[in-house]
Design goal:
CATH topology of the largest domain in chain A: Aldehyde Dehydrogenase, Chain A, domain 1
Oligomer: heterodimer
Number of strands of chain B: 9
Strand order of the largest sheet of chain B: 2-6-7-4-5
Helix content of chain A: 25-40%
Largest interface: A-B, 76 and 58 residues
Helix content of chain B: 10-25%
Order of helices and strands of chain B: EEEHEEEEHEEHHH
Strand content of chain A: 15-25%
Radius of gyration of chain B: 18 Å
CATH topology of chain B: Hypothetical Protein Aq_1857, Chain: A
């Protein structure tokens, strides 16, 4: 067990600056209007740094810098860009604890997750796209004896990216790595709930990238996000967030006739067929853990397995065992490596989760565990903690239909395979899903029949680089985490070449 | 005179009962934001980080379509002053799962949310919900059919938290 010293106290792995400006053109630039906002740590509910409150003027400066950098960066060889990405990965690896503590302080999540997942995955993600860009070939076709069609990948130029707060560094890297590998310059706006950790990363890697290739402007959605998303000086906008803002961003993209990839959340079913409980062995233990993963990252994951579907014959026994397991979740100081569940990311997030617990009860769902705000005492009393919560109910309840983005699980039963698939697909979303069965045929068929972009079979919540990630239905457009993402950041240039000396003969 | 609660007019054809209201603190904030930005609209969001919250935009900023339902229209104006209409929208597919609930727009301290106009003030709109009294969302049997025998028995339900 290790308890990391809180930032601002002796021995902390990270020392935050008292004030963070925007990162533009390879240097720190004060916001044009001179305004800042406080960054609050959800661990204690107290502010710890001031952050630039960027506006359209700052976005313009960032776009200027990006446009200046894009032509040269776009002409570097894939090998040169890959070398830069690999260097970034090495630096992340060499600073895992520091970045992990920064991320935990900014977001509230347990440090065991940032150390073992967020930060190492970020490094690996850069390495994956360093490899992917070097392995990417163009295309050619010999259309006839003297005519050849060549297809080249070209960068789009300058792209905009808007990042969510649930994995502030990792989600930024999911978007940055393919964009940079493909040769684009980026203007990135972090979430205003978690504006600092990505800047701590920039302090480490800023001088590896040519000035202006990555620019970061903080601020509020209306004041900084909108001017970026609606700018006619970007060639693509990428966004992870919710449906209404996703639609608004697609609307801005349509006005500029540019592509947009959007990842908009989910309400992922986690299906347990009866044969899972055939024996109380290691696999049963794994499936039980798979159920309890609703509490991973305090439930603040777009793919959180927030609907558990249990087959009737095992419903009571499987749920009883899982409730006992969920009761053992250790909530506490997020900087303690023994802590399994940290703080929700913000006060309004906490309030929203509590409002869903309220409507769940009113709709007649039955509380099996938790259901209240958690007061962890001491300095943590002001932090945003919620008990792991399990409800039993019916798939038409709002608890089952809305992404609560908290440690709240909705459990229901199904009769047979068809019932399971019908309930699983009765949602507007289609981002993630889980299927648990000892029967490979059933698991395979279910995986194919569920309308979701990622179906975990006999596992959950793994996010290895290389496995494509993205939504069906209202969960969005586009794929990340795989070489397919390169295509979202590239233009296709076709050179149609005639090697014939002879004219067409038309005129 | 204290700020009143404002209930939206009925805007869905064939319906007679309001679906949305504003708490007094929401009314005060909206009147203030109207002074800063002019006419406003709500679109209820779903999913992910900032989802399931009502997003406040300049009227017309968010383009609605046949894929949206207008749940009601508020008039923010105090009595005897020119009308300040504010529509409350939701996507039709989301409404299909929300239609049995009455929504109250409240305000809580918070940080940011999409492009919603109140965020720079350090507050967030929040939806609180009640069951509509005139609509039965699902038969009680539908719920008990889906949960375990132990949980479905009323006494066990009350004993659950631990």
């Amino acid at each position: 067990m290790t308890v990391y010293a809180a930032p601002g106290t002796p021995g902390s792995k990270v020392t935050f600056k008292s004030r963070y400006e925007n990162w533009i053109g390879g240097e720190w630039v004060a916001p044009v209007k001179g305004q800042y906002f406080e960054d609050i740590t959800p661990v204690t509910g107290k502010p710890f740094a001031e952050v630039a409150r960027g506006t359209a003027e700052d976005i313009d400066l960032a776009l200027d810098a990006a446009h200046k950098a894009a032509p040269a960066w776009g002409k570097t060889s894939p090998a040169e860009r890959a070398a830069v990405l690999n260097k970034i990965a090495d630096i992340i690896d060499a600073n895992v604890e520091m970045l992990a503590v920064a991320e935990t302080w900014d977001n509230g999540k347990a440090v065991r997750e940032t150390i073992n997942a967020d930060i190492p995955l970020a490094a690996d993600h850069f390495r994956y796209f360093a490899s992917a860009i070097r392995a990417q070939d163009g295309d050619h076709a010999q259309l006839d004896g003297d005519t050849v069609s060549y297809q080249f990948h070209e960068p789009l130029g300058v792209v905009g990216q808007i990042i969510p707060w649930n994995f502030p560094i990792l989600m930024a890297v999911w978007k940055l790595a393919p964009a940079l590998a493909a040769g684009n310059a980026v203007v990135l706006k972090p979430a205003e709930q978690t504006p600092v950790s990505i800047l701590v990363l920039m302090e480490l890697i800023g001088d590896i990238l040519p000035p202006g290739v990555v620019n970061i402007v903080n601020g509020f959605g209306l004041e900084a996000g909108k001017p970026l998303a609606s700018s006619n000086r970007i060639r693509k906008i990428a966004f992870t967030g919710e449906t209404t803002t996703g639609r608004l961003i697609l609307q801005y993209a349509s006005a500029n006739i540019i592509p947009s990839t959007v990842e908009l959340g989910g309400k992922s079913p986690n299906i347990f067929f009866s044969d899972v409980a055939q024996e109380k062995d290691a696999f049963y233990d794994k499936a039980q853990e798979g159920f309890v993963l609703f509490a991973f990252n305090q439930g603040e994951v777009c793919t959180a397995p927030s609907r558990a579907l249990l087959q009737k014959p095992i419903y009571d026994s499987f749920l009883a065992d899982a409730v006992i397991r969920a009761k053992k979740i250790i909530q506490g100081n997020p900087l303690d490596t023994d802590t399994q569940m940290g703080a929700q990311a913000s006060n309004d997030q906490l309030e929203k989760i509590l409002s869903y617990i309220d409507i769940g009860t009113k709709e007649g769902a039955i509380l099996a565990l938790g259901g209240e705000r958690a007061d962890l005492g001491g300095d943590l009393t002001g932090g945003y903690y919620v008990q792991p919560t399990i409800f039993e109910g019916h798939n038409k309840m709002r608890l089952f239909q809305e992404e609560i983005f908290g440690p709240v699980l909705a459990v229901t039963s199904f009769i047979d395979y068809d019932d399971a698939i019908s309930i699983a697909n009765d949602t507007i979303y289609g981002l993630g899903a889980g299927v648990w069965s000892r029967n490979g045929n059933v698991a395979y068929r279910a995986g194919r029949d569920i309308q979701a972009g990622r179906v975990w079979v006999n596992n959950y919540h793994a996010y290895p680089a290389g496995a494509a990630f993205g939504g069906y239905k209202s969960s969005g457009i586009g794929r990340e985490n795989n070489k397919l993402a390169l295509g979202h950041y590239q233009q296709t240039k076709n050179l149609l070449v005639s090697y014939s000396e002879n004219k067409l003969g038309f005129f | 005179m204290p700020t009143p609660t404002i209930t939206a007019s009925v805007t869905i054809a064939g319906e007679t009962v309001p679906r949305v209201e504003l708490t007094p603190v929401a009314v005060d904030l909206l009147r203030n934001l109207w002074e800063e930005h002019g006419p406003l609209m709500f679109h209820q969001s779903g999913g992910c980080c900032d989802g399931s919250s009502p997003m406040l935009f300049m009227a017309g900023e968010f383009i609605t379509s046949d894929q949206d339902v207008r749940l009601g229209q508020f008039d923010l104006a105090p009595a005897d002053e020119p009308s300040q209409p504010l529509d409350f929208w939701m996507s039709a597919e989301q409404f299909s799962y929300w239609s049995h609930t009455f929504l109250t727009v409240d305000v809580v301290p918070g940080r940011g949310s999409g492009f919603s106009a109140e965020a720079p003030r350090g507050v967030r709109f929040l939806i609180r919900s009640e069951l509509m009294t005139v609509i039965t969302p699902f038969a009680a049997a539908a719920v008990t059919d889906r949960v375990g025998a132990a949980a479905a028995a009323p006494p066990a339900a009350a004993a659950a938290p631990s």
